[in-house]
Amino acid sequence: MGQFHLSLAILLVYLISPALGKSGVHIISGVPSALRVQCKSKDDDIGTHTLSNGEEFSWRFKPNIFRTTLFYCYFFWEEKQKSFAVYDARLSRIFLELHKTSTVEDHPKKHKFDHLVLGPAAGEGLHDRLQCQGIKALNKTHFSASAGTSNFRENVAFVTVFTTYNTSIDRPINVESRDMVTVGNISYNKVERSMAVLDVFINFIQMMMPQSNIIILTDPASKLPVHRNRVTVYPIQGEYSRDKLMLQRIRSYIAFLETRLEEHFQWQRQISHYIFTDSDVAVVDDLGQIFNNYLNFHLVLTFRNNKDQPLNSGFIAVRGTPDGIRRGKVFLQEVLKVYSSKYMKASRMLGDQLALAWVVKSNPSFDAKRFTKPLAFLEEIGGASVLFLPCAIYNWTPPEGAGQFHGMPLDVKVVHFKGSRKRLMLESWNFLNSSSSDISDMLCLILKSGRTKYDF
């Protein structure tokens, strides 16, 4: 019989003994055979402990100042039938539940969930972070007064690159397919769930910025069934294979900006600014204020406190003046040049972000220490005035990757459902539209669910 093991990251936020400032972990073995436990955090190594069925083990520790100490625990046991659950410190809510009855394998595939799993809400007790009781917001996020009814006179257009692979959108659904997923009362195959994510992306923008246009850059071979008001499908020739999609995305951005520059004489009386985003983002505030509040930039990038990948390419904005479009295009052409010459081994993922960082950091006067503080700043890079905005507000990611921020800022404007969090994006939209809850409550749902890896 093979050995089954589970690795689990436990985020602890509750104080068991406020007087001592201590928190604790309590483990009860529920497997018939011996359970071997190894747990450690950044500062504590608990060592290895072996528990028999029903035996208990606990330890106490002093949490960090944010009360969000993260322990990595590894559990090993030999048994064909396994049941495992993780509760919060008050034993009032299951954070994770795992049931397996299949044959044990030496290296089982990580479990990904087909339903929402709630955990603790990071940022508890911090005055400038969203506070949640369950999925009810105790304080409200600071949305723009104009959100949904913007008086911003200059148009803002959202631009995203989107394509589908392998499967025809019109193919009949095979209900037996292993690729089928269900969200709410709707089942999707792979292509349909990608289209559902795109649809929700559009929904959030049209709810928060109803006067904005949405432009979908795609492979001319794709026949996207998108028929929405203020949404345009814009084919651009290129190589849209999975291995080259990030490279093609930059090429498509450049090609699009070139057409805007060429056609400027036709719409020069009406400025249209451009926000280039991934299609797995939710716009939860009016972003037109960026162009109104910051008047001296050509290009916007979002940054985080991450040494190797401080810039995220999922949100780039270009001012819609001829000068802004021209300088934005030249900047992206330099990124493409660096990408093609230095980072082709990372062409499937991350190469664009590595190239962005290289272009920015290669500027002799640039101080990379500015990435460590979530404050907006302006810098001249390669002839373009680049506005750097913090990911914590303009490109927030549910799992708080790389530890660059704690909890959710009250003025968050964009939520990015990177990786295996597309289910959470769809579930969040359904939650917002099927209850009396508001945006702040929905953000509590995202905050408490975002650390979980979902089935898509």
Would you kindly provide a written description of the structure presented here, covering whatever features stand out?
Residues 1-21 form the signal peptide. Keywords: Secreted, Self-incompatibility, Signal. Pfam families: Self-incomp_S1. It is found in: Secreted. One of its GO terms (biological process) is rejection of self pollen. 38% of the residues are buried. The radius of gyration is 24 Å and the shape is globular. Helix 1 packs across helix 8. The chain folds into two domains: 4-111; 136-449, Spore Coat Polysaccharide Biosynthesis Protein SpsA, Chain A (Alpha-Beta Complex), CATH 3.90.550. The chain is built from nine helices and 22 strands. Residues 7-20 and 79-108 have low confidence and may be disordered. The strands form seven sheets. It has an eight-stranded mixed sheet with strand order 15-14-11-16-19-18-21-20. Strands 1-6-3-4 form a four-stranded antiparallel sheet, with no helix packed on it. The longest helix is centred in the C-terminal third of the chain and has 21 residues, at 322-342. The protein is of the alpha+beta class. The protein has helices at residues 190-208, 245-262, 264-267, 289-293, 322-342, 351-361, 391-394, 422-433, 439-449, and strands at 4-12, 23-28, 35-40, 45-51, 56-61, 69-77, 82-87, 94-100, 132-133, 136-137, 155-161, 181-183, 186-188, 213-218, 231-235, 272-277, 281-283, 299-303, 311-318, 377-381, 384-390, 414-416. Helices cover 23% and strands 27% of the residues.
